[in-house]
Amino acid sequence: MFIDIAKIFVKSGDGGDGAVSFRREKYVPLGGPDGGDGGKGGSVILVSDPSMTTLLDFTYKRKYKAEKGQNGSGSRSYGKDGESLYIKVPMGTVVREAETNKIIADLSHEGEQCIIARGGKGGKGNAKFTTPTRQAPNFAQPGMPGEEMWIKLELKLLADVGLIGFPNVGKSTILSKVTKAKPKIANYHFTTLKPNLGVVSVPNIKNFVIADIPGIIEGAAEGVGLGIDFLRHIERTRVLIHVVDISGIEGRDPYEDFLKINDELKKYSVKLWDRPQIIAANKSDMLYDDNVFKEFEEKLKKLGYDKIFKISAATGKGIDDLMKETARVLNTIPITDLEIDDKERYIPQEKKFTYTIKVEKGEESNIYVVEGSFVDRLLASVNVNDPDELRYFHKVLRNKGVLNELMEMGIKDGDYVRLNDFEFEFVL
To answer: Binding site: residue ranges?
Structure first.
């Protein structure tokens, strides 16, 4: 089964907590603090793997979590870092942040890696909080939480050349003739339900990869048929071979078909529409009037297309010349990575612990409620019932600017400050 889109949840490991510990040594207050730091949490890393050809694995498992860092311990022993989680994805996978749909990474080279979620830092042990006036701190820092997000994986095939055209014009037959690929071939529309790739070997010319892209019909860019699902797979191609049925045995006009397909390319992406095209007028062995091809050729030349080949995939006529010209054009076009516009690129926000302050009015005194991730982290790291730790608590509030902000908001002596379940009376 060919799966080219998947949505998964990733979470990096939380950092380990710092330790509160005291060594037993004579003449050292409380034995002396020796709590070690917590270990760093593992990161979630995507790795491109050329042996993978589909995102099928991600339909069965959708949540991925890296290992947590271990907590610190006594004797200044640091906790072990959590193991990073490496997730293999096919080459050509574009990674998007699910909520904004912005691009995080384009993994188009073998072994290329991208850190999607970084592990949380380990918390500091109490040995790191000693000062000349605080020689026996009885508190430590909790580990930083890991990052988490939903991401979308979008596979865009790494093909040099894309075969495009209406269904049943012979794209799969051409692919089977020029490569060792064995696509399903039958005389009905949408025989091909997934992109097929093959390698073309032309004597004295570097090999190239060609893909048969199914389902592009009128309205494909708006989701009609299968086209919208597969148009992404020709975004990386450097050359397009536009296949038309010149025989007209199905009552279709090859010129009109050519215009309609190009209109769909333009609607989907102007860059795609502007890509070099080589036209392959297929099924020429079934053409009864050669003037049909001549008229078709003249119309296209007026539009600026000069690479038009009269071929028959069934008999092999003209196929060699078509591939040689394709290889020649490829050699004139440099290989470039997928272009990512600055507006499309995802820029991770720096993790900050924030807070908000709101006022609950009272008859005699007001209550200033401080909430947010900053409050949660601060209260997790100190015991407010311990005098030394309470002094550290107030020092952090002052350094963070919380006390100044409270005064700017008009707090007075006798008002109260509430942080989660802890409440104290404000005194200047």
So the answer is: 165-172, 190-194, 212-215, 282-285, 312-314
